[in-house]
Amino acid sequence: MENDKYPFVNLPLPYAYDALEPFIDAQTMEIHHDKYLQNYINRLNDTIKDYPELQQLTLEELIKNAVYLLDPLRIPIQNNGGGVYNHRIYFNGLQPPTGAPPKGRLIDMIAAQFGSLDNFLIIFKAEGMKIFGSGYTWLVFDNGKLRIITMPNQNSPLLLNYCPIIALDVWEHAYFLKHYYMRSAYIDDWMQVINWDIANQNYMQCLANFGKADVITDVNE
Length: 221
Ligand code: MN
Prior knowledge:
The protein has 221 residues and is mainly α. The protein is built from nine helices and three strands, in the order ααααααβββααα. The protein starts with 25 loop residues before the first helix and ends with a helix.
């Protein structure tokens, strides 16, 4: 991941603010990225500004190690580190609709595990609708299998050692300017702008990391 160490900066979106219209509106994208994500970045930098040893860690390492830290570090790193990491996956995982049917090894694996891509999307949306309050629905890689999970607030799947593939942000700030209270309509629109090529790349990276993890285990034994 680009800019994976302190000081964290807000990387530009890989597309224009209005690129996802009419599914996700330009004003939502601009405020979500430039204000909400920027706030998480500022607070994360502020949290570790007096801790040079933590500044050496990557964003992923910070999140994974937060559980071992005491307050006042653990919760701010979990919230703001997660806020940076989760939003980067969310924003990078979107694109204007291409019209081309999704393909790749991830799509094959989804079909094998969930019956079909359509069936997967139905289950994924149902999980997104279940979240009480703020959080995310994730497609993650867990020990060789795909899994749909929900996480509250900005808790990252990294906290549970899952490898993230697709992130759906269901915080109201992700949709209320256009969809008001209608999370269901937002999720339907979000599904039109999933970047399946990026999702497939994330999946392939998860597979690669999974193989490496096995090798490390063998060496330690
Ligand atoms: Mn958000």
